[in-house]
Each structure stands twice: as structure tokens, then as C-alpha cells.
Amino acid sequence: MPYxxxxxxxxxxxxxxxGYVLTMNSERRILKNGSILVKDDKITEIGKADxxxxxxxxxxxxxxxxxAMPGLIDTHMHLAQALIRGCADDxxxxxxxxxxxxxxxxxxxxxxxxxxxxxxxxxxxxTGTTAFIECMIHTRYGFDGIAKAVKKAGMRAALxxxxxxxxGYADSEEIMYPGMVxxxxxxxxxxxxxxxxxxxxxxxxxxxxYGLRSLGAVTPELFKEVxxxxxxxxxxxxxxxxxxxxxxxYVHTNHEMNLTEFAEAHDLLxxxxxxxxxxxxxxxxxxxxxxxxxxxxxxxxxxxxxxSGFAKIPQMLKTGVPVSLGCDGGPSNxxxxxxxxxxxxxxxxxxxxxxxxxxxxxxxxxxxTLGGATAMGISNKVGSLEVGKxxxxxxxxxxxxSMVPASNPVxxxxxxGSGYNVDTVIVNGQILLRDRKLLTLDxxxxxxxxxxxxxxxxxxxxxxxxxxxxxx
Length: 472
Known about the structure:
By secondary structure, the protein is α/β, with parallel strands linked by helices.
């Protein structure tokens, strides 16, 4: 089939040839002129292009001057926050939540939830993300509609249902906006129903997790109960922990513990947990995180924008803590571009540590791929390009002005690139983006719906987002 023509559904075979193949395998092998053969949903052959001459496939993609690499994995993000992008810039965290984010999200309809999810996934696909962990789906966002949207978009996802039984935030009591409050029994019941309905569906691309609200919104008893339920179901958990220094004060004041002691006492440590942010762990807590293989989702852009602090990522990596990357959300990062996030992860720790040798481009890229696969519990299936693994991969164009010359494409990717250098995205052997055009989502329709739903949401809440400078 000629280049540029994409059949309906997943092709039986795809041959990517003549590309710069970044395998991310155990040897971190790079093929300067390599080829990849995909059959159905798996990678069946990888090698030098000259050695793979004569291979035939339903679709042949010439990847000359492109990087072929594993798809990027976002391990902490909010689908619902794409629709409220830019709603609360340059304000303090508590005001950010109380006056803007919670108010807007607390007035969502199911249609808003679906529209925001489609907008978010369109951006993620367009910028090279193939898999993600949605950390907290509120009942009002419409879990069913979001799951259907993920199935249609073709991405790989862990969808986490919000679990809560209190209305605080860290050591601030009863501050949550009423529209964000959920009944505990209803939370647990819906999670169970959605797990039965959606876990393992969409050709295995969908998982249903428990999304615990942060400290102050979940009692110790509920933390332990959810840990028990998650392990009983053989599913996973995620929560914000150590994003704010108030978390440290909360566990010290109420439980006379540090963060890891609290997490351990309530059965929250382990490879089936993803802690978002993890900024305020002390050095002596990192060994316990490493021993238990508890995952940290590092969100550098969000942490900088909200002035939350600097996570101890260099120390975590040295200690052996599993670290991945997350874009967080539209109000706290303003993009869902994982290549930009990878750049941030490689840069901010150099400045903070006064050491250009900490967190290299290669380490940041490991977090964005292998680290993400580990956090999702699927490192045996994705995260690297290897024979037998699922065909989740992207092609990144090296011919844009910002990427020339390409003496070291890894450096170009992390330090010079952005998601908009992504040319092709493949998940489970299905092409989602080709020649920078979305194939599973209608981009014009997605944008039109997002504009109209965002406008209606602002009208309902009375929140007026305007430039700070005079605008006529």
C-alpha cells in the first residue's frame, strides 16, 4: 500500500525502515539506520535496514531523518483539566484550587468530561504520548463516556476512579468545593462496577484503578480498605503525596510519622502504587520507597508553576526509586506535551543542584518511557522496542529547523524538540497519527466542541478569565 494511505482499522503489518531506532532495550542499543517490522499488535523484528531488505508489509513507512522510539507514557495527568486550560495562572495553590479549579470541575457534566477527555487525548496523541494514567475521575465527569472515548481514540490508559470520605486538603479541613464531594460508598461501588465493565477491554488497552484523593480527603481507615480492595482485584492505585509541605505537617501532627511511615502503616507502599509529585520526601525516606518499588511520578512543570518545590529526583535515581514523568493538568502545566516535560526533567535539577551532570537527557528519556511502563505495571509489554513487545511506538521528525543538525538525535529530542515534531504514533499496531494528522479523532470537531463546552462552563460558574493587561 502506498505511503500516506491508511486502511480502516489496524493493519496486519507495518514496516518502518531507514530510521534512527532508539530501542531503549537493556543495552540501550541505537540503530542509526534501522527497521522495525510490526505484525498485528506486536513487534516481530528489529534490525539494521540493510539486513531487513526484502521484508514486505501492508504499510511501509520510510523513516529516513526520523527517530523511531517507544511511545511516551504520562503517569500523572487529569483528562478533565484540558477543558479548563489556563483558568488559574499565577495564583497561590489554595486559591488555585478553591477559587478556580474545583469550582470549574465541580460544575462539569458528563458531556464536559467526554469532550475534555477527547481534547486531552488529541493533544497527547499529537505530541507522542501512547499511554497514560488518569489519576482521578469524578462521578460527574462520566466514567463510561471517558472509557468509550479512550477506546475510540486508540490510546492505552489506566483510568482511576476518585475515592474519598472527607473534604479536607492536607491540614486544611473542610475546604473542598461542594460539587467535588463524593459519597464514599458510591465511590467504591462505581469503581467496582467500572472495573468489571472496562478493565482489560479495548483489546487490553484499558485498566481501571483506584484514584485516592490526597491526604485530608481520605481517612486512614479508607486508605487501608482501598489497598486491600486493589490487591484483591489485582489492580493498582495512585494518589498525590508530598506535593505540598502541608502533607508533611499533616502526617506529623496527626500521626507523628513522616510520609513513608504513614504510607507503610496504611499499606500504600509497593510496586502497585504511583505517588504523584513526591516532592517533600526526606532523604532518609527514599530507601524505603526503593525497597518497596513504590513509583514516583515526577511533574516538573506543574511543580514549578505552582511553586510546590523540587523533588529529590537525582537522589531518587541513585537510591533506586522507580521514577516516571507526568504532565499533570491544563491549569498547572498548560500542555500535555511529554517531550517538553522530558526537557524540564533534564534541566531543572541541574540548576537546583548547581551541577550539570545530574539527570542527563538519557535518564529523563528513561523516565518518560521505561519508567512509565514500570509505573503502569506493563514494562514486560511496552516501554522499549523489542521483539515480542506490543507495537506502541512513535516517529519524531529530525528535519525541522530546531532539530538540525542531528549529530546526536537523543540530545535533539530532549533539549531541542517538542511534541509537535512527532510525525507518527502507533499503539497496539494501530496507527493513530500519520503525517502529523490524527486518524482516530476528528481534530476540527474536537476543537469546536471544546470551545463551546468551555464557554458554557465559564458561563455556568461565573468565572471570567481575562488577560491581566488591558484588552478591548
